[in-house]
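Many introductory courses stop at the sequence. We go one step further.
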Amino acid sequence: MSSQTNISELQIERRKFKPVLPEILKNGVASVKAKAGKSTKSVADQAKVKEIFKNTYGLPEVSFVKGSNASLKKKTLKVGVVLSGGQAPGGHNVIAGLFDGLKKANSKNILIGYLGGPSGILENKYKVISGPVLDEYRNTGGFDFIQSGRTKIETPDQFCMTKDNCLDNKLDALVVVGGDDSNTNAALIAEYAKKENTEMCVVGVPKTIDGDLKNDHIETSFGFDTATKIYSELVGNICRDVNSARKYWHFVRLMGRSASHITLEVGFKTQPNIVLVGEEVLAKKMTLAQVVDGIVKIISKRSENGKNYGVALVPEGLIEFIPEMKELISALNDVLAENCEAIAIMNSVEEKKEFVFKNLPAKLSALMKSLPAGIASQLMLDRDPHGNVQVSLIETEKLLIEMVQKKLSELKKAGEYKGKFSAIMHFFGYEGRCGIPSNFDANYCYALGYNAAALVLNGLTGYLSSVKNLTKPPKQWVCGGIPLTMMMNMEKRHGKEKPVIQKALVDLKGKPFKEFVKNRDKWADTESYMFPGPIQYFGPSGVTDMTTKTLQYEKGKK
């Protein structure tokens, strides 16, 4: 793997940034001890999860406290690290923290990086990580140092191959950096290693820009801070454009298929006129028509005041939060799967649609007919390898714009709307995944990696690296580990019940959402837009080191 040769002026300066370690870790892993807390249980389905994780269920929470652990200096360990799933800003600093933590304990410790994600483990493709090459990637975005991938290790053969390759490489530990699915994988590998009586330790690190991997011990997943700041800069720029031109409605779809955390955080940072929260739509069992009516109501009210412009934020996964749409997609999957041969020989999309209309329940058939023609066709054509609708490819913002336009035309004919509606759509997703990490994420990721080294050196398998107290300065952060099984529940995947780390959705009773509800009417009526601008890496701490509004509200700091 070649080192970086083309670097920007900012990257040169970012190399000089020295992440601040939590006080407990500043003298190295050998100066702390692991203190066990109470034993744990999974968040749901305890009996079923315990049955699957016979060897790793019920482990205690762990915190690191001061205390000499000189034996760690004598151990020489070889550790593997893998980046799994989608990219998130700060991954390179996790590797740097892990590397520095291992080397501080014993300069002979070795870190290898598996290439291309979990497939690198199965194919035994890796590189030995050296200090000089790693130095070029510190405080940089992306996962390009060792790349990532979405391969899942889930079959008996794959688990056996993972064990054999790790043992062949004489690994003492494997660190999996990933989201809920990847860390579910880590838990299963840890369980398999225990069952096979191997001494290999498996540790996870929480990563996802979606923000849906969190709980009391994982206050936020890394990358969420940076990604939402990047999206907020873009949305803030659009808000300023809207306030300048005053003639368009901008509909912005934001990444986050399973939860609306990103949309809510960007809403706090920019204060647009409309912020849709999927979890609220689901809780109120809103229909697609009701969602559209809510948008139309705001557009109409603004138009009465001569404001034919505004900004609306839409979570990527909104469609799946609308109960009737979820029901339609499920029924569509069944109809298409059961009649795949008959549909395959039909000559046109229209013929296929007519066939589907006749085979859907009347209520769902009427719903599909009410959708814009392009969206209805998209539901028919775009399938994943399992034959299911690829919801993430549906242009939800386009769907809403077309349905809003239709509704406004009806109101105009009835003399109930006299304004103008001209819309522009955007999707911000990949723009946020590989940005140069904010100071918060640079510090947090480094601490997560260093803390993972502490878990590994203490032989704590089946744990997720936990660094909390994050609204305080980094020196005051609290370090430890929580059992991966503690976050598990059972979910249906491809027709079978499987253990999965439970996704954290927007809590409608939580402080962030309550704060949003308190302000949204004002945002809808007025130009309360905020313009956060680009991420600041240099300057006053109040600007450069601030964390997310969501976390500040959750911890009562706002």
